[in-house]
Amino acid sequence: MPGSLNHHVSRVRTLYKKILQLHRALPLELKTLGDQYVKDEFRRHRSVGPEEAQCFLREWENYAATLLQQTNPKAQNSTSHPRFGSHLPEEKLHALRDEQVGQLQELMQEATKPKRHSYIIESMTAQFLT
């Protein structure tokens, strides 16, 4: 295996493990939904080209950095429900492929099923896009 490919595989595995570890700090329903989404997305992107792989990793690294900050107890306001995620800028929404828009819709439907907490809608929709 060439060195750069070896480095890439290591980077992907490290990021994947880090995200699953960060999910441990989430409420159980968010953790479950997030873990499954991450597993599916990483599986879907196993054989993408170098340019798409770099974009994929960059977005998931941004997600991990945001989640690390948001799961820090000092960053949460103790008087309200913890809030996870961030706003999806309109330019990113317009840049999504049809398949990604469909995935976002599926994620929103899953996150808004009955018995889900209302903050799941805000927390999950923007963050689990790639």
Automatic annotation (TrEMBL):
Fetch the Pfam families from UniProt. Complex1_LYR_2
- Name of the gene: SDHAF3
Instruction: State whether it acts alone or in a complex, and with which partners, per the record.
Output: Interacts with the iron-sulfur protein subunit within the SDH catalytic dimer.
Superkingdom per UniProt: Eukaryota
In terms of PANTHER family, this protein maps to: DC11 ACN9 HOMOLOG, SUCCINATE DEHYDROGENASE ASSEMBLY FACTOR 3, MITOCHONDRIAL
What is the protein name for this chain? Succinate dehydrogenase assembly factor 3
Task: Tell me where it mainly resides.
Answer: mitochondrion
Q: Where in the cell is it found?
A: Mitochondrion matrix
Q: Can you tell me which family this protein belongs to?
A: Belongs to the complex I LYR family. SDHAF3 subfamily.
